[in-house]
Amino acid sequence: MTLQHDDAHQDLVARLADAAHQVEIGPAPCQAIVSEGRRRQRRRRVTTVAAVLVAACATGVAVTSLQDTADRSGKVGPASRTPAPLAPHTQELATGRADGVPWSVSVDVWEPAKNEAGAARLYAAMNDREFPDTERGGGYPYRDLLDEGWFFARARTGDKNWFPSDGPLPVKPTSRGHVESTWVRLKGEGADSWLVFGHTAPDVRGVVCTWSNGATTKVQPPVLHTIKGTDSRFFVVPVPKGGGPKSATATPECRSNS
C-alpha cells in the first residue's frame, strides 16, 4: 500500500509540473491599471467643468434677460450721465493803463440752448457766473434762450470789476449794419478815464466813433473782434481826452463805415 501511494504521489507531482511548464506568466498589468485610473479621473474633471459651464451660462442668460426686461420697462437701467457744466467763450478785448492804473475789458459769450431743459441750465449758469436777472431769456421757462445766446462785458480796474453791458445775441440777426455801444468809465484808485465798449451785426467790417470834442476813431480788425459762439463782433476803444459824454444820458456816436 505504501509503494502504491508513493507512486501515485510522484505521478501527480509530475503532471502538475508538466501543467506548470505550459502556463506563461506575464508581468502584472500595473500600467493598464494606472492608465484606466487616469482616464476615469479626466472624465470626472470634464463632467465637473461642463456642469459649471452649464450653470454659468444659465445664470448669464437669466441676468441678460432680466436686464433686457428692465431696460424695456424703464424701471431699471444704467445711470444717466450728468451733463457737463456750461461755460462761456471768454476773450479779452483790450488792456491798458489809465492814470497809472491797469485796466482790462473782456467779454463772455454764451451759446444758445438746444432745448428747454438746456435753456433752464443756461439761465442758471449765467446767473451763477455773471449776475442774476429774473427777466433774462424772457423769464421762466426762458424759451428766448433757444433762439439767442448772451454776452457779458466785464471791466476791471485794479481790484474792482463790473459789467458795463450785457444783452442777447440773436442766432439770426435781422438788422444789417447795426452797431450798439456804451460808455465805460474807468474810475477808482486815481483813474478817471473813458472807454467805449460796442458790439455789431455780423456784416459790419469797420466802425467809426465820433467823440464829443469832434475827434473820430476808426475801429477795424483786429480791434473789431470775432469770438467763438457768435457771429457778432465786439470792440473796445479808449476815448481821447475831452471826448467823453456831455451828459449822463448821452450815448456814444459809433456807426458802421463798411
Search tags:
single chain; 258 residues; alpha+beta; four-stranded antiparallel β-sheet; 3 helices; 31% helix; 31% strand; elongated; disordered N terminus
Description:
- The model is unreliable at 1-5 and 46-71 (pLDDT under 50).
- The chain is elongated.
- It has a domain at 89-256.
- It has 3 helices and 11 strands, in the order ααββαβββββββββ.
- It is α+β, with helices and mostly antiparallel strands and 258 residues long.
- A hairpin with a 2-residue loop joins strand 5 (179-188) and strand 6.
- It has helices at residues 2-22, 30-73, 116-129; strands at 89-98, 101-110, 148-157, 160-170, 179-188, 191-200, 207-210, 216-219, 225-226, 233-238, 253-256.
- It is 31% helix and 31% strand.
- 23% of the residues are buried.
- The chain has a 4-stranded antiparallel beta sheet with strand order 1-2-3-4, with no helix packed on it. A 4-stranded antiparallel beta sheet has the order 5-6-10-9, with no helix packed on it. Strands 8-7-11 form a 3-stranded antiparallel beta sheet, with no helix packed on it.
